[in-house]
Amino acid sequence: MIVLYDNREFDIGLLGNGLAEKVVGRSLSELENEGVIVSPSGVDKTTTTIFSTTNGRTTTGNIVGFLSDGMHNVVIKSRFSEKSADDYFLTYMLEKVLNYNIITTFQGSGNLYYNLLVLLFPYYLNIALKKGPYKEYVIKKYNEADFRGRIDIPRQLKQNIPFSGRIAYQTSEFSYDNDLMQLVRHALEKIIGRSSYLLNSTNETRKNITLVRQVTPSYSKDQTMLVLRKNIRNEIRHNYFGEYGPLQKLCIQILKEGGLDDNNKVIHGIVVDIAWLWEEYIATITNWRHYGRRKNLEMLHLFEDSRNFHRYPDFIVKNIPIDTKYKFNLDTVNDYNQLITYLHIMNEEQDDTRRAVFLQPAINSEKIWERLGKLNGLGGELFTYKFYIPQEVHSYAEFVERIKIVEQQLRDHFND
Questions:
Q1: Do 217 and 88 have their domain in common?
Q2: Do residues 104 and 140 both lie within one domain?
Q3: How many whole angstroms separate alpha carbon 108 and alpha carbon 41?
């Protein structure tokens, strides 16, 4: 297994891993068609790549997770967890953003790939169930006097000779108790057996688990492999139930856990846009006014007399625009210009006391607050706040304990 870190240059020729060469330069949308699960669903899949090559230099980007082609495995971890054997930072942000009750003894299977699958299961389950349980035509077999389908002659001869008044027949019925919902049921029962707290995190998740159980009365643990094979052969391509596609892929990988070979797929795995996750994590721990392109978020308007040109600072606290940046070093052109724009359109008059802040993760705790400089023209100042990610921890419990202190420092700083 090859372990890489996000936003790093590496020599693809020295990896000795053919998987990386299959992935380099290919968009997330291409990889998703082959079996890779991409989270969140709203990430730009057409232009975003996992590995890119420019002038002979191959680099990772803001995508982390796990990839496999059946022969080779590649794990991409957060560069802010490089000093720890496990990527506790990624796991913790997922738990926070997906609204779990943090269990400091969380260990999962010891496998980053499986842990990611399990952590994301409630998220995809709830998205899919917003459309209601998946429904399709299934073959139902009966043996009763009230005949209303096609006679099943082999079963009739086997079960009802001599004739007892019953007829063996089968019919096609629109049902929730189908292969896909059975797959979801098998996956959730497996998770409950290992990490039950993940499925008790929210009322929505608990409600949907109850619903899945209600609509799959024929569930039998002994049928896991049969249900799994049926779903591998038959991908969901229903336009209305499109949200079930990622859930089906997720459940297949949870149940396989590396055990059942899938010859139909060249590459499988699960990847996460960690820059998106970093912003969502900050929103979760602060409850600051959140801006963005999603319908439920606020926005700024560039022109006084037009609503057509929008700008999106990540957060605004006490009239201070805050832009989260998942990076060590800021781009002094694009990043600076972006933050200065927010500062300018939020204020009508010249004011030297105005501030705008970058919020970055950091691997040392020596200097968390830094003044970048005072602006010419309309005035104002730029700052950066370094959010320290605990390093060299010995357990997940220790990581959680230490990062909660850092979170409180962040809230206290901006409250003061």
A1: yes
A2: no
A3: 24
Kindly give the confidence (pLDDT) of every residue in the chain, 416 residues in length, as a single tens digit, with 9 standing for 90 and above. Answer: 788 999 998 887 766 667 888 888 899 999 988 878 888 877 888 899 999 888 878 899 999 998 888 788 888 999 998 887 788 899 899 888 887 665 544 444 456 677 788 888 988 999 999 989 998 866 666 666 666 666 666 766 676 677 766 766 666 666 888 999 999 999 999 988 877 777 777 889 999 999 999 999 999 999 999 999 999 888 887 777 888 988 998 999 899 875 545 555 568 888 999 999 999 999 999 989 887 766 667 777 666 666 677 777 889 898 899 999 999 999 989 999 999 888 888 765 556 568 999 999 999 888 899 999 988 887 889 999 999 999 988 888 899 999 999 999 999 999 87
Q: Residue 169: beta bridge partners?
A: 142, 151
Confirm whether 367 is domain-assigned: yes
In which domain, by residue range, is 28 found?
Answer: 2-133+178-275
Same domain? 129 vs 158 = no
* Residue where a domain terminates, one of 175, 191, 225: 175
Angstrom distance (rounded) from CA 353 to CA 84:
41
Burial of 392 (0-12, 13-18, 19+ CB in 10 A): exposed
Nearest to 314 by CA among 332, 335, 333, 292: 292
pTM, two decimal places: 0.81
> Are residue 112 and residue 18 in the same domain, yes or no?
yes
Q: Look at residues 61, 48, 54 and name the one whose alpha carbon lies nearest to residue 4.
A: 61
User: 93 in a domain, yes or no?
Assistant: yes
Task: Give residues with Cβ within 8 angstroms of 296, minimum separation 6.
Answer: none
User: Are 35 and 112 contained in the same domain?
Assistant: yes
Looking at the domain assignment, is residue 105 inside a domain?
A: yes
Residue 151: both structure tokens together: 């006679």
Report DSSP letters for 232-270, one per residue: HHS----STTTTHHHHHHHHHHHHHTT-S--TT-S-EEE
How many structural domains comprise the chain? 3
Domain boundary, last residue among 246, 275, 304: 275
3-state secondary structure of 291: strand
